[in-house]
Design a protein that fits this description.
Strand order of the largest sheet: 1-2
Number of helices: 5
Number of strands: 2
Mean pLDDT: 89
Distance between the termini: 55 Å
Number of domains: 1
Structural class: mainly alpha
Radius of gyration: 18 Å
Order of helices and strands: HHHHEEH
Strand content: under 5%
Largest sheet: 2 strands, antiparallel
Shape: globular
Length: 178
């Protein structure tokens, strides 16, 4: 399958070269995105992760269905996506794609480690366990849940993230206004 399918609704496809070149690749700092930016980046990253999983036949111990619920996986996949965009950008060196493949091999090892640590699997997920340092209050560990509908969960997760960011923006704007 081509990484640039003609069908935009292809769930395993990715965007056209023209779309990729509309904006130059830049690193994404998830902590600094406003609601509008986050919504775009979430959907862009999800589309790319689906393409990556399908194109390279990645198993769930490398890219699990609930990757979006684990910050460590979001940051790793986001960095890999940014590197891919840079290496396949029209201004990239002709040897950049092989650099991406080398980095991708290393990233797969890191992703395996992250998935092992966070405890998410193909059919079940739980929040990443957090170490409590002396003097800290323990984090709510949460329980394991069954994964029933990954697409619905992703949509719900993004909606909640957008609402959270809008609340933060509203508070910040209110403080600026006085």
């Amino acid at each position: 399958m081509s990484p640039y399918p003609d069908e935009p609704d292809d769930p395993d496809g990715y965007r056209s070269v023209t779309e990729l070149l509309e904006r130059p690749p830049v690193p994404i700092n998830w902590n600094l995105l406003d609601a509008e930016q986050a919504e775009i980046e979430w959907h862009d990253l999800d589309e790319w992760v689906r393409w990556l999983k399908s194109t390279f036949g990645l198993p769930p111990n490398i890219v699990p269905p609930y990757w979006h619920r684990h910050d460590e996986l979001v940051w790793e996949l986001s960095a890999l996506h940014c590197h891919w965009l840079s290496c396949y950008h029209e201004s990239a060196s002709p040897s950049a794609p092989i650099s991406w493949m080398r980095e991708f091999a290393e990233a797969r090892d890191r992703l395996r480690d992250w998935v092992s640590i966070c405890g998410t699997r193909l059919d079940r997920d739980r929040p990443t366990r957090q170490t409590t340092w002396p003097g800290e209050l323990p984090a709510d560990a949460g329980g394991e849940i069954e994964i029933r509908d990954r697409n619905k969960d992703f949509a719900d997760f993004v909606r909640e993230d957008i609402l959270r960011r809008r609340r933060i923006e509203a508070i910040a704007n209110q403080q600026l206004i006085g």
